[in-house]
Amino acid sequence: MDIGLLLVLVHLVGTIFGVGGATMIEVHLNQALKDSLVSKDESAILALDYKIVRVGLILAILSGFGFLLNFKLEGEVENLYSPVLWAKLLIVIIIAINTLLLQARKISLYWGASFSFVSWWTAAILGMLTLEDVTVGALVGEGFLPIFSSIIIIYLVAVAIGSVVLHLMRTKVTKKII
Question: What per-residue confidence (pLDDT) applies to 127?
Answer without folding.
Answer: 87
